[in-house]
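Budget justification note: compute hours in this period were largely spent on complex prediction jobs such as the one shown. Inputs:
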Amino acid sequence: QKEVEQNSGPLSVPEGAIASLNCTYSDRGSQSFFWYRQYSGKSPELIMFIYSNGDKEDGRFTAQLNKASQYVSLLIRDSQPSDSATYLCAVSRGGRAGGTSYGKLTFGQGTILTVHP
Amino acid sequence: DAGITQSPRHKVTETGTPVTLRCHQTENHRYMYWYRQDPGHGLRLIHYSYGVKDTDKGEVSDGYSVSRSKTEDFLLTLESATSSQTSVYFCASYRRMNTEAFFGQGTRLTVV
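Corresponding output:
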């Protein structure tokens, strides 16, 4: 079993719809959870992070974390063609205080999202 | 961008040759990391550094070594390149107690 698994995709949604991206992780010691977006040929860019159970909203993005179920998700509302990219889920044993473990990210394999007009 | 650059951006090398990739950051970040990205695997941590001359192994460190003699530079060396090391390599750095990792643009390495 992979440490971090994402829904396999590719995922295709129409413009304006909600895109739902899911991720499960196996390490119960994980404390920090991240969603990165990566355009083809580019480096990953952070779009959301979450530390606590529940929802966290930032504009059109909502991250949801359920530590009991070891599950983290990303919802993209009003999807736009510019959201078409690979979305990477990453977890870390490091907490919000930072430190060495914080940056030791374990990534999922990524989910390709296509938003079609 | 946060002032983190990788060089070279592309390299083709022959099996058995040594290769050094450079990561340079101008943000005075303490923590630096090297990842490789391969299809179906996401990014995997190779080595990391928590300060000058302080480095440690990550998940896929075999065949790689690193050095950090200055805060701004983190070097990744493939002592004797193999075809399995063909990959895209990303460097990342963090501010202390911050939430965002800044990634370099990546280096595409092909070992033939």
